[in-house]
Each structure stands twice: as C-alpha cells, then as structure tokens.
C-alpha cells in the first residue's frame, strides 16, 4: 500500500506541475527538457528502485519495532493523535534540515549532494535528481530519527509522502502570483525561495535549506527572502560545472561529478 500510495501521489503531482510549468513558467529555461528530463528522471527511478522500493520498508519496520519496544521520546507520554503527528512531522523535518546543511558543510557529503546542485535549470525533474549514495545516507539518518523519537509507522508514511511531493513542488519552475506567494512562503518553502539555494553564488547556496517549511532557516539564521538577482534571472548550478556535457549525462550524474575536484564557486 505504501508503494502504491507514493507512486500515485508522485505521478499525480508530477503531471500537475508539468502542466503548470508548460503554461505558466517562472523562468525561461536555457536548456531544453530533452537534455535534462531523461537522465534526471532516470536517476530518480534508480533511487526509487534501489532505495525506496527495496529499503523504504525499513523505515516502517523500524517504527513498528520502536513502538513494540516502547522506544523514543514520543513513547514516554500518551499524546493526542494530532499532537503526536505534528511532533513527528516537525521532528523528522528538522532532521532533514540538519542533514541538508551537513551535506553542504562536509566535503565527503557534498561530493554526492553536488549532483543535485549541478543542474543548470530547475524544474520538477530536479526534485528527483539525487545521487543514490545520498539517498542511502538520508535513509539511514531517518531511521535514527524514527528510533530516537519513537515515530509511528503511519506518521512515517505521511512524512515520506509529504516530503517527496514537497520536493517536487519547491523545485518546480512555476509562476505563483505575488499575493499568493507572500502567503505561501509563511508556511511552505516555495519554488522562489528554494531557487535562491540553487544559485551559483556561494553565499546563496548556504541559504534556504528547508525542503518543506521555511521555519528552520528562520530559526537558525539561514533564511534569505530575496536573491541578489530577480527570481527569473538567477543563474543556476554549483558554479564550477557549466556545460550540459559536464552536468547532464547519466555517467556524469552517477560517476563523473562525485569524483571531480571538490572546488567550490566563490564570487
């Protein structure tokens, strides 16, 4: 049921965002989709096949085991269902925020996360462009969070589904009218906010780490409301690789980019 639910949600949201991007794009893309989508989505499929489909069940098993053993902070008190769900989702989301910052700070983690940042455009396909090694590391960290907090299997499922769908949303190239954008960014990491994080400017890459909400960035001093350039003019990429040959082939995504020099861009 978990796999079916996630697949249904994934393809539904992808289709909606593709339609939105085609009719109301936020930014004119410099690279045609045919150069990016096949390998971005292939990478996403590899992750789903090797990590999600085969190992996602570990998260649910970990949650079931923690409940049976009475492990975790949330098991110490009998919480109302709504409060327990809220604490579970916020706790795991904070963990993902911390993990994301570590992937930028530690060179051996950046090696894998860099694959995500070398995309020269940003759209719904970027939301699945992660190296399988990064996906495995993330999976392991989430198991630790599930054990420490004692999160129920249902709340694990809800978090995983919401995280996947929000990653598609905040990487999408969609135009949102400014009045609605100003409301949404109070509770969600919108595409305009997350696009700042994908700028080639190093200081902007160190902002807006949240995948779901902007609150952690606001709490820990990594929030940036506006980029140095207008939203539709932000130059995307990691700042060191700037041609499709370097950044778009499947071989580059799986092997060449992680093995290249770890030089970073500093304006």
What can you see in these coordinates?
This protein has helices at 2-23, 33-69, 81-105, 107-117, 132-149, 153-171, 178-184, 191-197, 202-205, 215-219, 244-247, 250-259. Helix 1 runs parallel beside helix 6, helix 2 packs antiparallel against helix 6 (153-171) and helix 3 (81-105) crosses helix 4 (107-117). The chain is 63% helix and 0% strand. The protein is mostly helical. The chain is globular and about 55 Å long. It is built from twelve helices and no strands.
Brief sketch in words of this structure:
This protein is mainly α. The chain has helices at 2-23, 33-69, 81-105, 107-117, 132-149, 153-171, 178-184, 191-197, 202-205, 215-219, 244-247, 250-259.
Task: Indicate the radius of gyration in whole angstroms.
Answer: 18 Å
H-E order:
HHHHHHHHHHHH
Number of distinct beta strands: 0
Determine the fraction of residues in helical runs and give it as a percent range.
55-70%
| Beta-strand residue percentage | under 5%
Q: How many helices in DSSP terms?
A: 12
Main pleated-sheet profile: none
Regions with pLDDT < 50 over 5+ consecutive residues?
none
Specify the overall morphology.
globular
| Class derived from helix and strand content | mainly alpha
- Give the termini separation: 48 Å
| Oligomer type | single chain
Mean pLDDT: 88
What tags apply to this protein structure?
mainly alpha, globular, 12 helices
């Amino acid at each position: 049921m978990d796999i079916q639910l996630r697949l249904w949600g994934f393809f539904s949201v992808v289709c909606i965002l593709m339609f939105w991007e085609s009719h109301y794009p936020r930014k004119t893309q410099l690279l045609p989709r045919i150069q990016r989508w096949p390998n971005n989505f292939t990478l996403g499929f590899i992750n789903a096949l090797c990590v999600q489909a085969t190992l996602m069940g570990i998260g649910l098993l970990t949650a079931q085991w923690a409940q049976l053993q009475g492990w975790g902070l949330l098991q110490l008190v009998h919480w109302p269902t709504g409060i327990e769900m809220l604490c579970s989702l916020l706790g795991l989301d904070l963990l993902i925020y911390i993990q994301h910052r570590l992937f930028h700070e530690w060179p051996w983690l950046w090696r894998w996360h860099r694959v995500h940042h070398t995309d020269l455009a940003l759209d719904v396909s970027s939301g699945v462009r992660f190296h399988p090694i990064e996906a495995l590391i993330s999976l392991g960290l989430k198991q630790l969070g599930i054990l420490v907090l004692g999160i129920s299997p249902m709340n694990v499922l809800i978090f995983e589904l919401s995280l996947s769908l929000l990653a598609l949303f905040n990487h999408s190239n969609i135009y949102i009218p400014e009045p609605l954008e100003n409301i949404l960014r109070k509770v969600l990491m919108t595409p305009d906010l997350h696009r700042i994080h994908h700028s080639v400017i190093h200081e902007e890459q160190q902002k807006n780490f949240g995948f779901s909400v902007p609150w952690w960035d606001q709490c820990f001093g990594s929030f940036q409301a506006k980029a140095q350039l207008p939203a539709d003019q932000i130059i995307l990429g990691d700042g060191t690789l700037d041609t499709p040959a370097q950044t778009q082939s499947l071989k580059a995504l799986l092997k060449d980019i992680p093995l290249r020099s770890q030089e970073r861009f500093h304006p």
